[in-house]
Amino acid sequence: MTVAELAAIGVLASPGLGALVLLVLPGYRLAALLNVTFCAVTLACTALLYGLRPPAGTYLAVDDLNTVFLIVNGLVGLSTSVFSAGYIAHELQTRHLARRHVRFYHAMYQFLMLSMNLALLADNVGLMWVAVEAATLTTVVMVGIYRTPAALEAAWKYFILGSVGIALALFGTILVYLAAQPTLGEGLPAMAWSRLVASSAAFDPALLNLAFVFLLLGYGTKIGLAPMHAWLPDAHAEGPTPISAVLSGLLLNVALFALLRFKLIMAGNAGVLSPGPLMMTLGLVSLILAGLMMYRRRDIKRLFAYSSIEHMGIITFAFGLGGPLANFAGLLHMAMHSLTKSAIFFGVGYVAQLEGTQRIADIRGLTRSAPLLGWVWLAGVVAIAGLPPFGVFTSEFLVVTSAFARAPWLALPLAAGLTIAFGALLLRAHEIAFGETTKQHRLPAWRLLPMAAHLLVVAIAGVFIPEPIVAWFRHVAQVLGG
Amino acid sequence: MTALDFDIAHLLAGLLVLVSFMLLYQDRMFALLNVFALHAIALSLAVGWQAWIQRAPHLYVTAAIALTFKGLIIPVALHRIVVRLGIHRSVETVGGIGLTMLAGIGLVALSIVVMLPVTAVASSIGQEDLAFALSVVLLGLLMMVTRRNAVSQVVGFMSLENGLVLAATGARGMPLVVEISVGFSILIAFFVIGIFLFRIRERFDTVDLQALDMSRGEQE
User: Fold this and answer.
1) CA Rg, chain B, in Å?
2) Is residue B215, in this structure, part of any structural domain at all?
3) Which of A57, A266, B13, B141 gets the most CB atoms within 10 Å of its CB?
């Protein structure tokens, strides 16, 4: 067995083994440590896949597209597990969580990583669907882990809306199979993504069109695109903060990845309607709606949940626009958003624990009460608002310029949406960071490490992106096509 | 495959649509659960017939799951939960039954208009089957949005999922059908256990989602 094959197996085996071990392991400290270790092994395996390509199997395949998502997954998964160790220790101390729940939490965390990686690696649209659903259900359970009425309501809402998304995506997948079946024959080949892409020119266009509408609505629910986004703010606000970070940073990406896979199938067929305008419309609606909603938020986690909807809108818009530049911008924005938003959620998690509340009105003067945390967190908000010198600025700038070049009329609502969201973020962040306060909080500096590391990467990316990474992203953007 | 085979397949799929309509206007909890059991039995007949005419023995497993799990175990479990929760008197429907039925007819018309021309070219086993399946899916969605009670929402979801299973079995030779139906059964078991646990362990006063909305963080 070659190194490449071992790495590909490790991407799945490490979180899989982790889930089993952590399920039976009592004791919080060891479990948290092992959680970090398994995530580190997973990251190492995904990093190996950057250069190595194992031969495609029947169900799984490593290609240029999914390695980007896998590596972002591994990176954010690892730093979130480090953050989660401190966060969960605090929740145990304050008795918000019972010990048996924590054991369950760690096992579920690894299982979530497993199912997300499986969704990314799957070369079979049915298997991909199963894996996305497994990931969704895992997060449903984790959102409800606090067992408060609000948490249960959020989990229930997520469950119901997520299930409708599940159902629509499956119907779309069945239709894709039906479209492929006359060409590829019955059984497995007609569900293998690489085969589907290669021969989609011969598929029935009308059937593909219909399938894509269902897939867009189904996976769009998971991406959090408006108007199917209703579950997202609740799920982010009521669950444990590490899960909010993973939801925003990773699971939304995985759903988007699934949609991109089907967009590529559509791209191979000349007779179908172009999926681009549909994605652009949903993206813009999400961007503007979320931007407006952010003005009325009173809960800090809900505020940033809406910000995630906004950014997923931007990314969906960019991929909908298509072409090498917009795809490049979309990929870059996806990576930058994952890193920045998870860093912000790490900060929000500490803030909520120190202040004992998530209400924005009760959180004031963070730069005075906890200077280091306050300033690092503010840097994160500045980054996500799209200000230079951070990488989010670069990617948003690229999205806007490619929109101006390709579809000037759409660039106007895009720019308007960005400005609306920008205003809301700075307004709220100003209150939180600089209001009057008499409180003093203590937080060990090392616990800011995952957050600072993410923001450092984002800041560096804003100034200088290394040539190999540019070449890599450019190549993937080419693969994603028009 | 003879014309009679097709006719029976259409008859059974049409029966499923009919029972979906019956689900829409049930305003009693127990009646709703009984009609759902009928829905599941109709599904297992439709799937069983597909297994027979496609010579696909693995589909019998799906049919058996539909019959025992969704036709028997789930309705009985929900029946007991409804009694335990004391919500067996009536089901409130939003918007009135007449309007809901009209919307349902509209949805079925829509799915036939959408599916028949599309699948005319595809050499699938029964294009009408797919139109029926989409109707069942849309009627299930309609039921989920018109009901406010958690139990009847679950019933709506299960009827929707029956439509998906019908679509998947109608797609000749589709892999993973049995696995997906098993997965859905686990999902539904989660739902049911969820309702049960929320009430018993956490002492919820209601499973009415409108009341749950009040506990959200945004209201002040």
Assistant:
1) 18
2) no
3) B13
Q: Cβ B171–A174 below 8 Å, yes or no?
A: yes
Q: Are A373 and A384 in contact (CB under 8 A)?
A: no
Number of structural domains, chain B? 1
Residue B114: both structure tokens together:
């959408």
| Residue from B24, B218, B26, B192 nearest A156 by CA | B192
Question: Per-residue pLDDT for B41 more than 90?
Answer: yes
DSSP label at residue A250: I
What is the average pLDDT across A414-432? 91
In whole angstroms, give the CA distance from residue A119 to residue A135: 9
| Side-chain half-sphere exposure of A377, counting CA atoms within 13 A | 31
Burial of B88 (0-12, 13-18, 19+ CB in 10 A): middle
Pick the residue of B180, B195, B219 with the most A CBs within 10 A to test the interface with A by mutation.
Answer: B180
Range of the domain at B95: 3-208
Angle at A239 between CA A234 and CA A244, to 5 degrees: 85
Determine the distance in angstroms separating the CA of A187 from the nearest CA of chain B, rounded to an integer.
Answer: 5
Residue type for position B92 = E
Task: Please enumerate residues of A whose Cβ is less than 8 A from a Cβ of B.
Answer: 126-127, 130, 133, 137, 147, 149-150, 152-154, 156, 159-160, 163-164, 166-167, 170-171, 174, 177-179, 181-182, 186-188, 190-191, 204, 206-207, 209-210, 234, 237-238, 297-299, 302, 358
Task: Let me know if residue B220 belongs to a domain.
Answer: no
Q: What are the Cα distances from residue A154, in Å, to A70, A148, B154, B216?
A: 28, 10, 16, 8
Q: Between A2 and B20, where is the model more confident?
A: B20
**Which distant-in-sequence residues (6+ apart) come within 8 Å of A64 by Cβ?**
A472, A475, A476, A479
* Boundaries of every domain in chain A: 274-482
Instruction: Identify which of B21, B38, B62 has the alpha carbon closest to the alpha carbon of residue B171.
Output: B62
Is there a domain that residue B14 lies in?
yes
**DSSP per residue over A301-368, as a string?**
HHHHHHHHHHHHHHHHHHHHH-HHHHHHHHHHHHHHHHHHHHHHHHHHHHHHHHHS--BGGG---HHH
- Alpha helix (H) ranges present in A56-204? 64-93, 99-121, 125-143, 149-184, 193-198
- What is the predicted ipTM? 0.86
φ, ψ for residue A95 (rounded to 5)? 60, 30
| Burial of residue A423 (number of CB atoms within 10 Å: 0-12, 13-18, 19+) | middle
- Does residue B5 come out as left (phi exceeding 0), alpha (psi in the -120 to 50 range) or beta? alpha
Convert the pLDDT of each residue in A98-154 to its tens digit: 888 888 899 999 999 999 999 999 998 989 998 998 899 889 888 888 888 888 888
**Count of alpha carbons within 13 Å of A455, Cβ hemisphere only?**
24
Q: Do residues B105 and B142 touch, judged by C-beta distance below 8 A?
A: no
Q: B114, B154, B164, B169: which to substitute to probe chain A, counting the most A Cβ within 10 Å?
A: B164
- Taking the alpha carbons of A213, A214, A215, A221 in that order, is the dihedral positive or negative? positive
Residue B156, domain member (yes or no): yes
Q: At what angle do helices A467-480 and A64-93 cross, to 10 degrees?
A: 110
Q: Half-sphere exposure of A283 toward its Cβ, with a 13 Å CA cutoff?
A: 28
- Answer whether B161 sits within 8 Å of A302, measured CB to CB: no
